[in-house]
Amino acid sequence: MGEESTTRHDSRAERRALLVWTLLARTYHHALQEIEATLLDHGLTVMEFDVLAHIDARSGLTQQELAGRLLVTKGNVTYQLTKLEGQHLIERHVTKRCNHLHLTPRGRQVVHDAVVSLKALHTRQFAHLTPEEQRQLTALLRKATSAPSSAHDNATSPHAPLIEV
């Protein structure tokens, strides 16, 4: 009977874990769709916004540094930068053998407007939660993301949160 009880308990724990994972995945998918739509209102994709946000946070960033921060290939970065430069959102300043990246005034305005819209979106997304529930959710998500689930989790993420609460 002890073995059957353990199996039943494991099965319940597995179902509970699967439910949590499914809800997180659905939440992420729904939030990403809303983020994509919001950024599209500003003429941006998520990747373009990510590139612009990194350059905004650290003007003068090199193309190579940006590729490392975004965890994409140099070719993908070059493609994105060429598009953004064509839209007059960024400028590349060549020094020696490096391209240093800067936002144009138009690029700064687009990033600012997009951030304002994203903040409003996120406020709406969580408005149905009380401040205490938001704190609890934040604490639970931090706890979940800090628990190692595989050997790969021991690597430190190069991404710092854009907003700290």
TrEMBL record:
A Pfam family: MarR_2
Keyword Transcription in record: yes
Signal peptide positions (record): none
Keywords: DNA-binding, Transcription, Transcription regulation
GO MF annotations, alphabetized: DNA binding; DNA-binding transcription factor activity
Region listing for Disordered, in residue ranges: 143-165
InterPro entries: HTH_MarR-typ, WH-like_DNA-bd_sf, WH_DNA-bd_sf
Organism superkingdom: Bacteria
Bias-annotated ranges (Polar residues): 146-157
HTH marR-type domain: residues covered: 17-146
PANTHER family: TRANSCRIPTIONAL REGULATOR, MARR, TRANSCRIPTIONAL REPRESSOR OF EMRAB OPERON
Protein name, per record: DNA-binding MarR family transcriptional regulator
Organism whose genome encodes this protein: Deinococcus yavapaiensis KR-236
